[in-house]
C-alpha cells in the first residue's frame, strides 16, 4: 500500500467522525455506562407513565424536523429569543423533565461527554422497546446545536394533507414509505381534543360514526381539553394496529385518516395492516434514518452541560 493511501486509511480508522458518520457504541470508552443509565431512567419513568413512549417519539420527531437532531427543542426561551419550545406545535410536547434527569446522572458519571441529542435518540429507542416495539441499535456521536428559535419551526400539522406532509418529509430526505412508517408511531400516540375540534364539528364522513359519537361526548366537557388515544384498539402497545384502525375509519387526526384515504399512501397502509413484522422492520430503518438528519458531529456544536441552555 502506498504511503499516502496508508495515511488516509489510518486517519479514517482514528477519526471516523471527520466524515460526518455516527457510530453504534460511540460512548463505549468515554462513558461505558451511558446507554445503561438512559435505559434505567426511561424504564422507571415508563413504569409510572406508559404514555412516555408517545411523548419521546414526538419530541424526537419535532427535534429532528427543525434543525436536524441537535436537541434544539430542549432549549428554554429567554429574553431576546423565543426558542422552539414556544412554537404552537411544541406547546404540548412532554418529556423534558425526563431528559433533565438523564442528563443530570450522566453529567455526574461522565461530565461534558454525552450530548442531549444522543439522549433523546437513546431514550426514544428504549421507550419503544418497553411498549412492545422492536429493539434496535442507535448510532451515537451527535453534538448539540447552538441555535433554537421559534421561527424555524415548520412542522406538518394534524390537518395537513398527504401531499403537504410528504413534501415536508422529502425535504428531510425521507421517502413516502418512511413517512407512512413514522406516522405509524401514532399507534401509541395521544392528542388533545382541541386538535380535533374542527373535525368533530364538521360533516367529515370519513370518521366511523360510533367513534365520532364517543369523541364528541368525551371532548364535550366545558373548560377541559382531555387527551384522546390515536389508536383506539391497543393504545399503549407499539404494534401495527394503528393501520387497521385508520382503514376502518377510526383515525382520530385528519392527517392519520388521510393516510388510508389518499391513493398515494393507501397501499403502504394496507401492507402494514396485513404484515406487522414488516412494519416493525421498516420502522427501525426509518427511525434510525430520521435520527441521522442534519446531525452535528466532530467539533460542530457543543456538548451541553444543561440540556435547557447553551453552554455559553
Describe the protein's architecture and organization.
The chain is mostly helical. It has two domains: 21-154, Orthogonal Bundle (Peroxidase, domain 1); 162-289, Peroxidase, domain 2 (Orthogonal Bundle). The chain has 13 helices and four strands. The strands form two sheets. Strands 1-2 form a two-stranded antiparallel ribbon. Pfam families: peroxidase. GO terms for molecular function: heme binding; lactoperoxidase activity; metal ion binding; peroxidase activity. Heme b binds at residue 186. Its main location: secreted. Keywords: Calcium, Disulfide bond, Heme, Hydrogen peroxide, Iron, Metal-binding, Oxidoreductase, Peroxidase, Secreted, Signal.
Offer a few descriptive terms.
single chain, 312 residues, mainly alpha, Peroxidase, domain 1, Peroxidase, domain 2, two-stranded antiparallel sheet, 47% helix, 3% strand, globular, disordered N terminus
Distance between the termini: 46 Å
Strand order of the largest sheet: 1-2
CATH classification, class level of the largest domain = Mainly Alpha
Number of E-type strands: 4
- Major sheet attributes: 2 strands, antiparallel
CATH architecture of the largest domain: Orthogonal Bundle
CATH fold name of the largest domain: Peroxidase, domain 1
Identify the overall geometry. Answer: globular
Which range best describes the helical content: under 10%, 10-25%, 25-40%, 40-55%, 55-70% or over 70%? Answer: 40-55%
Structural class: mainly alpha
Q: What is the total number of structural domains?
A: 2
Q: Could you spell the SSE succession in H and E letters? A: HEHHHHEHHEHHEHHHH
| Count of alpha and pi helical runs | 13
Average the pLDDT over all residues and give the rounded result.
92
% residues in beta strands: under 5%
Rg from alpha-carbon coordinates: 20 Å
Poorly predicted ranges: 1-20
GO biological process, one term: response to oxidative stress
GO molecular function: heme binding; lactoperoxidase activity; metal ion binding; peroxidase activity
Enzyme class: oxidoreductase
Binding site for heme b: 186
Amino acid at each position: 500500500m502506498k504511503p499516502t493511501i496508508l495515511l488516509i486509511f489510518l486517519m479514517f480508522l482514528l477519526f471516523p467522525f471527520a466524515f460526518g458518520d455516527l457510530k453504534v457504541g460511540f460512548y463505549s470508552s468515554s462513558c461505558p455506562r451511558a446507554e445503561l443509565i438512559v435505559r434505567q431512567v426511561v424504564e422507571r419513568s415508563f413504569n409510572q407513565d406508559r404514555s412516555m413512549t408517545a411523548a419521546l417519539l414526538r419530541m424526537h420527531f419535532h427535534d429532528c424536523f427543525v434543525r436536524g437532531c441537535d436537541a434544539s427543542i430542549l432549549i428554554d426561551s429567554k429574553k431576546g429569543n423565543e426558542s422552539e419550545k414556544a412554537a404552537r406545535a411544541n406547546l404540548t410536547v412532554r418529556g423534558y423533565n425526563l431528559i433533565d434527569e438523564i442528563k443530570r446522572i450522566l453529567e455526574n458519571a461522565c461530565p461534558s461527554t454525552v450530548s442531549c441529542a444522543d439522549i433523546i435518540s437513546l431514550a426514544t429507542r428504549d421507550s419503544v422497546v418497553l411498549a412492545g416495539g422492536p429493539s434496535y441499535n442507535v448510532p451515537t456521536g451527535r453534538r448539540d446545536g447552538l441555535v433554537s428559535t421559534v421561527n424555524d419551526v415548520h412542522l406538518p400539522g394534524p390537518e395537513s394533507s398527504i401531499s403537504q406532509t410528504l413534501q415536508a418529509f422529502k425535504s428531510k430526505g425521507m421517502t413516502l414509505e418512511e413517512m407512512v412508517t413514522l406516522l405509524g408511531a401514532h399507534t401509541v400516540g395521544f392528542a388533545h381534543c382541541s386538535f380535533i375540534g374542527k373535525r368533530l364539528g364538521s360533516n367529515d364522513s370519513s370518521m366511523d360514526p360510533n367513534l365520532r359519537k364517543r369523541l364528541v361526548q368525551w371532548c364535550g366537557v366545558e373548560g377541559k381539553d382531555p387527551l384522546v388515544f390515536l389508536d383506539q384498539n391497543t393504545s399503549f402497545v407499539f404494534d401495527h394496529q394503528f393501520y387497521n384502525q385508520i382503514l376502518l375509519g377510526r383515525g382520530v387526526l385528519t392527517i392519520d385518516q388521510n393516510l388510508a384515504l389518499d391513493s398515494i399512501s393507501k397501499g403502504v397502509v394496507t401492507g402494514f395492516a396485513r404484515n406487522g413484522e414488516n412494519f416493525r422492520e421498516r420502522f427501525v430503518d426509518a427511525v434510525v434514518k430520521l435520527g441521522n438528519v442534519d446531525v452535528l458531529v466532530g467539533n460542530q456544536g457543543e456538548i451541553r452541560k444543561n440540556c435547557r441552555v447553551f453552554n455559553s
